Amino acid sequence: MQVSFSVSPDHGRSARLDTQIDALGGEIRDRRKHARRLAGYVRTQTRRNIRKQETVEGAPFAQRRDKRDKRAMLTGLARTLAIIPRGPDGGVVVSWKNPRDARIAYRHQHGVGEEWGPQRAARAYGVPDYKARCTRRQAKALLREGFRLPVPGKGGGRATRRVSVMWLEKHFTLGQAGLVLRLMRTGKPKGVQEWRDTVPERAALGVTAAEADRMCQRLAKNVLGRVPG
Fold first, then answer.
1. Bridge partners (DSSP) listed for residue 151
2. Comparison of pLDDT for 194 and 8, the residue scoring more
């Protein structure tokens, strides 16, 4: 009988739980109950890790790429983490029923990247309205990059002047702002056509060896407490 963690299998730790369930014995119905209880402990601990924004080992999560974004990470995955029956022998999996959630969790658990291109990005996020007004974020980015508006100078020459975020929002479209930003940053009018999106490792799913031992002890006490004297 297996108690497995499909996102981050840790054979040493899951073996502790498997051994404990086997030692308790009983019929398939009893082993399934034990497995679900241990899986419940693992799910609770994983949700606690995410709530505290810590890995299994207690280290803080790696920050977002945009360090100004202070929102908590993986909270949606904590809500959808499930205990899933597996096979006729009473085994369970602590994982996600939704394949998309499972894929996202796997990437964060292991720090795995994915290959992207314009077509995949369009399927995932849709195609922007490039004729819409530029966003405030784009306007601020343009000013950080040193954008100045070209204007006629004295004697028929050219000059530049500073503009505000509000001016850019009013006069630049989404497409224009994106093009100017790309030219300022890369010198190229066309963006990259292939890129790898890699996230930092944030291993929240699972338990430490010490936690696995404590879970086994709690389960054993619970079972023995129900045995008639």
1. 159
2. 194
- CA angle 5-41-113, nearest 5°? 35
DSSP state of 54: B
Pairing between β-strand 195-198 and β-strand 113-116 as defined by DSSP bridges: antiparallel
Please write the tens of the pLDDT for every residue from 5-33: 333 444 455 555 666 666 666 666 777 77
**CA proximity to 93, closest of 30, 24, 46, 26:** 46
Task: Decide if 38 contacts 83 (C-beta within 8 A).
Answer: no
Q: What is the pLDDT of residue 8?
A: 40
Annotate 179-212 with b (16+ C-beta within 10 A) or e (fewer).
bbbeeeeeeeeeeeeeeeeebeebbbbbbeeebb
Across 83-112, average pLDDT? 84
Cα distance between residue 115 and residue 117, in whole Å: 7
The continuous run of DSSP H or E covering 159 comes out as strand 158-161
Higher pLDDT: 55 or 39? It is 55
The amino acid present at 193, given as its one-letter code, is: Q
Helix axes 11-24, 28-52, angle to 10 degrees: 140
Domains of the chain by residue range: 5-114+201-225, 126-196
- Give Cα 47 to chain centroid, integer Å: 13
What the block records as the tokens of 103 is 């894929």
Query: 112, 198 in Cβ contact below 8 A?
Result: yes
If one compares 182 and 194, the residue with the highest pLDDT of the two is 182
